[in-house]
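Hi everyone, sorry if this is the wrong subforum. Our group has a chain we'd like a structural model of before ordering constructs, and none of us has done structure prediction before. Sequence below.
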Amino acid sequence: MAEQNTQFPYAYQFDATLLAKLLTRYGTDRGVRHVLDDVVHAEVDERGDVTHVRTKESGDLAGDLFIDCTGFRGMLLNKRLEVPFLSYQDSLPNDSAVALRVPMEMSDQGMGPYTRSTAQDAGWIWTIPLSDRIGTGYVYASDYCTPDEAERTLRSFVGPGSEDLTANHIKMRIGRSENSWVNNVVAIGLSSGFVEPLESTGIFFIQNGIEQLVKHFPGGRDDHQLRRSYNRQVANVMDGVREFLVLHYIAAKRDNNAYWQDAKTRTVPDALAERIEQWKVKLPDADTVFPYYHGFEPYSYTAMILGLGGLDVRARPGLALMDDTAASKELRQVRDQAASLVERLPSHWDYLAHVARLKGKRS
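Answer:
Right subforum, don't worry. Here is the predicted structure as tokens:
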């Protein structure tokens, strides 16, 4: 069941579309039958297993295992099997976004080599440079900002020329399904779970779900332990990412309005609250971050805490007893080398244009 992302942030939609095309080609090359259709109903037997889905044009399609990729609708898992959805919005309130595609001549304007996330009064704005345009959008909490206010803020942020661009408004379901694999239905992607795209983890969740399904692929109808193991791993990944995202807001120094002030008093997972107290006297390491795989290393936590500047943290006491002369020298050398490379290397746009020309010659 193909995931429909027509209302989702453009960068995510583009990446998910590429991944879907890759997997489609990989499967059909190996004999998989690809049916592109709309599912209108799913039939369930007395055990709670889906026996077949009814499509608009292709009739009934039976199967032993069904992958629910119906996006935020959760058509099979949440609606048909009635698996509960666990919301994260008590700690991550951003549930909406508005996006613009901004045409731009990168050869004239120059192209940044990174994505920027810029804090706003009710969330943050992403800015993603692409070859012929900038993808930008405002992720915000609807409790603090209306769609019209968010659109005006985004257009003002983009500047002249934005008034004629079409805005795409998005509602997001933040959280995860209680279990992503129930009976013979496995939810992958948005139907399994999603957190706001601050760390761009949407594709990561899809990839992880696929890898785990391969590792836990069932041998029959009664593989309860396989399902339990799969659900535990997928839940841990999403809960871990939730913790890391919540840290962005707790550790932020900004407190200039109700949204950012409330960020310091919103619900925090109990384990994260304990970790934060420990990090105040000993910065994160492998023993003190979220203990299960979730894609972020301890150094990411340290960089976040030190960069945002909103938590009162101290270095390990033992460091005060060490001579930092050698370390300071190394850091100066790194800084000087970076400055030299910036001067000598081609710009990001020039490099990508060069790669494109080489690719054109080979084809």
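For your construct planning: The radius of gyration is 23 Å. The chain has a mean pLDDT of 91.
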